[in-house]
């Protein structure tokens, strides 16, 4: 019986849940990740993944029905790792300015480690003119948890409550995503300065009070 990984739509799994189940699946995912850094997605094949993973083509199909399923898992893993990296702020309850800086530094480290996969995600999303449903829950989770953190801080009285927590989270996450995709992943910007400025912009937008 095939153990091909089902496509998960409508829910976001944690990094632990997305981890390879055994050494063979790990080798397949690692081979695909490395291949994507060297060859275009359109030329990636299940045969190539199998050769690079040192497993049979049948073994690859045992875990994944097609190359898109392999890529979907890599992209989901990257999103889940980014979300886990953002925990100091998203799940925090301390000083938001410090937690923002730490969370963004950790997220940028994950982005750098998964640049080829995330650039492919941006390319495929643009080519399909929509966010694929297999990835959508992972993006929405950032907004939901960002909104919750902002609302908690509004209730604590350390952030003004005269603006929508949800719209703030949507706009600020879009800002961060856009900058990371245009500057950090493409290697054109100063990473440390990006972390400093993005975290400061977020803090000023949410926590500064009108004068």
Written account of the structure:
The protein is mostly helical and 211 residues long. It folds into two domains: 50 residues, Homeodomain-like (Arc Repressor Mutant, subunit A), CATH 1.10.10; 137 residues, Tetracycline Repressor, domain 2, CATH 1.10.357. 69% of the residues lie in helices and 0% in strands. Helix 2 crosses helix 3 and helix 5 packs parallel to helix 9. About 2% of the residues have low confidence.
Entry keywords:
211 residues; Tetracycline Repressor, domain 2; elongated; 69% helix; mainly alpha; 11 helices
* CATH level 1 class label of the largest domain: Mainly Alpha
* CATH architect. name of the largest domain: Orthogonal Bundle
Point out poorly predicted stretches.
5-9
Class by alpha and beta content: mainly alpha
Order of helices and strands: HHHHHHHHHHH
Proportion of β residues?
under 5%
Question: Would you summarize the structure shown here?
Answer:
This protein is mainly alpha-helical and 211 residues long.
SSE diagram, text form:
Layout: H1 15-18, H2 23-36, H3 46-53, H4 57-63, H5 67-85, H6 87-90, H7 96-113, H8 115-128, H9 136-156, H10 165-184, H11 191-207
Helix pairs in contact: 2-3, 2-5, 3-4, 5-7, 5-9, 7-11, 9-10, 10-11
């Amino acid at each position: 019986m095939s153990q091909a990984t089902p496509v998960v739509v409508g829910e976001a799994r944690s990094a632990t849940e997305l981890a390879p189940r055994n050494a063979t699946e790990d080798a397949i995912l690692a081979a695909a990740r490395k291949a994507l850094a060297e060859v275009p997605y359109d030329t990636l094949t299940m045969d190539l993944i199998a050769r690079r993973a040192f497993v049979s083509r049948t073994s690859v199909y045992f875990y994944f029905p097609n190359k898109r399923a392999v890529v979907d898992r890599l992209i989901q893993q990257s999103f889940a790792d980014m979300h886990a990296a953002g925990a100091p702020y998203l799940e925090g309850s301390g000083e938001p300015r410090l937690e923002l800086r730490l969370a963004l530094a950790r997220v940028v480290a994950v982005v750098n480690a998964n640049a080829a996969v995330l650039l492919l995600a941006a390319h495929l999303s643009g080519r399909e003119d929509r966010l694929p449903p297999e990835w959508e829950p992972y993006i929405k989770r950032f907004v939901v948890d960002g909104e919750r953190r902002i609302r908690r801080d509004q209730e604590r009285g350390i952030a003004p409550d005269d603006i929508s927590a949800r719209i703030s989270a949507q706009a600020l996450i879009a800002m961060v995503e856009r900058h990371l995709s245009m500057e950090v992943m493409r290697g054109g910007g100063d990473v440390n300065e990006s972390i400093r400025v993005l975290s400061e912009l977020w803090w000023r937008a949410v926590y500064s009070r009108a004068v």
